Amino acid sequence: QVQLVESGGGLVQAGGSLRLSCAASGRTFGYASLGWFRQAPGKEREFAAGISGSGGDIAYADFVKGRFTISRDNAKNTVYLQMNSLKPEDTAVYYCAVDTFPRTKVPVSTANYDYWGQGTQVTVSS
What we know:
With 126 residues, the protein is mainly beta. Helix content is 0%, strand content 48%. The chain is built from no helices and eleven strands. Strands 2, 4, 5, 6, 9, 10 and 11 form a seven-stranded mixed β-sheet that branches. β4 and β5 form a beta hairpin. The protein is globular.
């Protein structure tokens, strides 16, 4: 059974940093694209960042470019999201997800992802 477990969320002041981790178990995903999405109250879940299986393709939503960095450690079956210069509008539940279809380009639609974590809350105070 596949499980994705996020950690690293919390409360931080504007301008601060957090590092999210997502550990996968039950299956190895060295070939799969891994993504981070977020969902704020009353809003749809949206793509934040993603990385292809090889790490050769990385995609970011415009609202995180220059502030967030996604990385992966295939040996640990883990994906990370380093979040710097956080803003109050970054407040959301952050989810990691796995796209098991082998692709060279990172998909940005939730429909392409097969497995999801339970989410971790990130709250940025002003």
